[in-house]
C-alpha cells in the first residue's frame, strides 16, 4: 500500500511541455496503487520522462468508449482501500475529457475524490487571448450535427461572457464561419499548440481570423476564444429578450438577466419588464 490516502486522484498533465507538470502530480503518479489513463501509452511516456517507474503496478485504460466496462474495476480497487490516479491525455481530467462518470460514481460510493490541479488548455488560451477574463464560459467542442450546433451557438450568443471553444485544425475554418454568421463579427483569438514549439496566438475580429486561416491554415490543437457581444442593444432587442425571459422568470429576475446580458441600466430594463408583464 502507498502513503497516499485511499481514493481517486484526478491528475492534470502537461498540454505540451513535459516540464509543466506539478511536483504534487508527480508524487501522486509515483505513489498511487493503481494508474488509470485515457491513453496508457501517453501516461507511460510522461512517467518515463520524469523517471517514475511503474514498479509492477496495474495500469488500465479508461476512456469514453470503455468507461462502462472499466469503471467497476476502478471502483473495486477504491473499495479495497487503494489509491487510484487518473490522467487524461493532456490537461485537466473531466474538462472536455472522460472521467466525469468515474468521479461521480466514486464520490457516490463514499470514496475520496480529489485533484492534483495543473495545466488547462482552456485557461492557458484565455490568459493569452487578450480578451476579458472577468467572466468566461467554457463550451468545449461544438456539437457535430448542424442543427445542434446552430441551437448551441444561438444560446451561447446571448451569454454575457467570453466564450472558449476547443476545435480541430480540420474544422476550424467551418466553425469560425458558423460562429461569425450566428454571433456576429466579434473580437477573438485563435490559440494553437499551446506550450509547444510552434505555439501561436492569432488575434483580431472573426472575419480577420477567417481570412488568415484561408491564407495560412493552422495545424495542431486549437482553442478559440471569443469576446461577448459588444453591440449596443436597441429597445426592440431588449423587448424581445425580455419577452423570452418572462416566459420562465419573474419580472425581477428577467430584468436582472437581460440588463446584464445587453449592458443596459437595470432600472430601465425593469420598467420595461413591468410593462410587458402587465401586458401579458
UniProtKB/TrEMBL annotation:
Keywords: Cytoplasm, Methyltransferase, rRNA processing, S-adenosyl-L-methionine, Transferase. CDD domains: RsmI. InterPro entries: 4pyrrol_Mease (IPR000878), 4pyrrol_Methylase_sf (IPR035996), 4pyrrole_Mease_sub1 (IPR014777), 4pyrrole_Mease_sub2 (IPR014776), rRNA_ssu_MeTfrase_I (IPR008189), RsmI_HTH (IPR053910). GO terms for molecular function: rRNA (cytosine-2'-O-)-methyltransferase activity. Its main location: cytoplasm. GO terms for cellular component: cytoplasm. The keyword S-adenosyl-L-methionine applies. Its EC number is 2.1.1.198. Residues 232-276 form the RsmI HTH domain. It is found in: Cytoplasm. Catalyzes the 2'-O-methylation of the ribose of cytidine 1402 (C1402) in 16S rRNA. HAMAP family: 16SrRNA_methyltr_I. Belongs to the methyltransferase superfamily. RsmI family. This is Ribosomal RNA small subunit methyltransferase I. It comes from Palleronia marisminoris. The gene is rsmI.
